[in-house]
Design goal:
Rossmann fold, alpha/beta, six-stranded mixed β-sheet, 2 domains, binds magnesium ion, nine-stranded mixed β-sheet, VC0802-like, 391 residues, binds adenosine-5'-triphosphate
Length: 391
């Protein structure tokens, strides 16, 4: 029995003239994701991508698992493929779905006939396959309204496909189809979620992490690396920069009024990230900020950080409650790592009473005490990159 995976495109189907590019991007991403499972052939037709095993002994469960994290896929379907001949379709359905058909009481057959040259119309194909299955499985009755199992027959250009339903894909649009953006990633719950949400909307993500040794430990950095590694399942390969931030934080501690510590620090982060992002061809910055979550995430505080960069700052979790962010982080499997208790540079030198309604003019005045340009240059030059491959 030959098996195949059918990938149903989601929003890509709506992309008009660009559809071909989106599909090619999706195929490229699927190929990369499946590399460790084995060798596959890819083809596309009628809003569907056909993934055919090109070697013996391929674990299709594993392939389905890998593809379930590829953005741009609306639904996935593991299916038997056979000749477009009614007798063959009937026996294939009986054989391929024998376990499922034996385990249920009611079923129905649905047919999609996109090959309009096939001699029988859809209802007749369903009726014939249904009749055949009833003759083979005496436990079965037809229930068209509420069946335990739906047997689907798809008659397409290159063959007939029989399966028992599709599983939902990751949704979204293919990573890379919208360009590239730089994610400011901490070790917390929110920023990995923000990165994956933007990957879901088609962005390739690079990471930027600010580390302040010895105030932040090797373990804290390792935690961020583990998070980035997890994210690669959804985002594909990720290049991450680690920016040395100790000197800047010490300068802030020594020269900035305490209630402005966090804000000045965040303005440094934005400026440094912008420089790295532009060098890396990124069109935006991404952060994990959520309105009102902490003092540095009030509307006024966000205004004071936005103003130091000309790049758009994407904050996909801005309107989400913590619970919703946690649910997403469980889904992308970063939650358990995120809650490990290691310090972040944001948690060293935290003010007791941070300003919640800061003014840009005050911040500009305060920053005059610092060698902004020199500190930023040094941090950018000291940034070290490391690549994380999807596994
Ligand atoms: P998270 O859960 O992502 O850590 P948070 O709610 O703890 O977010 P903050 O610590 O105030 O919030 O950080 C807000 C955002 O600033 C983060 O989501 C992240 O985008 C960025 N950020 C914070 N710390 C760092 C860091 N050390 N390196 C890079 N970006 C950071
Ligand atoms: Mg944090």
């Amino acid at each position: 029995m030959n098996e195949i995976i059918l990938i149903k495109n989601g929003e890509i189907a709506l992309k008009g003239l660009n559809r071909g590019n989106f599909e090619d991007m999706l195929i490229k991403n699927c190929k990369r994701r499946l590399r460790r499972v084995g060798s596959f052939k890819f083809s596309k037709a009628q809003s569907t991508i056909y993934v055919t095993p090109a070697q013996e002994d391929i674990d299709l469960d594993e392939a389905m698992d890998c593809l379930s994290t590829v953005y741009g896929i609306a639904a996935l379907c593991r299916s038997a493929v056979c000749e477009k001949d009614m007798q063959v379709i009937c026996t294939t359905a009986a054989e391929y779905l024998a376990d499922q058909l034996s385990a249920v009481k009611t079923f129905k057959v649905e047919t999609k006939r996109s090959d309009k040259r096939f001699p029988l119309p859809s209802p007749q194909i369903s009726a014939e396959v249904g009749g055949y299955l009833l003759s083979k499985f005496h436990n079965l009755k037809v229930d068209v309204h509420n069946p335990d199992l739906i047997v689907t027959v798809e008659v397409r250009d290159f063959g007939a496909y029989v399966h028992a339903g599709q599983t939902p894909g990751a949704g979204g649009i293919p990573v890379g189809s919208g360009g590239r953006a730089a994610l400011l990633i901490s070790g917390g719950i929110d920023s990995p979620v923000a990165g994956c949400m933007m990957a879901k909307r088609g962005l390739e993500v690079i990471g930027i992490h600010f580390a302040s040794p010895p105030y932040t430990s090797d373990r804290a950095l390792y935690k961020v690396e583990q998070l980035v590694q997890k994210m690669t399942r959804w985002c594909g390969r990720i290049y991450m920069y680690v920016v040395p931030f100790t000197k800047i934080q010490e300068e802030i501690r020594d020269k900035v009024p305490e209630d402005y510590f966090t804000l000045v620090m965040r303005r440094f982060m934005m400026r440094i990230s912008e420089k790295i992002a532009l060098r890396e061809n990124c069109g935006a910055l991404i952060t994990g900020e959520s309105l009102g979550q902490v003092a540095s995430q009030t509307m006024q505080a966000l205004g004071c950080t936005d103003i130091v960069t000309t790049l758009p700052v994407l904050r996909p979790v801005i309107g989400m409650d913590k619970e919703e962010i946690v649910a997403f982080s469980r889904k992308i499997d970063t939650f358990e790592i995120s809650i490990q208790p290691y310090e972040d540079c944001c948690t060293v030198f935290t003010p007791a009473h941070p300003k919640t309604k800061p003014k840009v003019a005050d911040l500009e005045e305060i920053e005059k005490a610092l060698d902004m340009e020199g500190l930023i240059r040094e941090a950018v030059e000291g940034a070290e990159g490391k690549v994380f491959h999807q596994n």
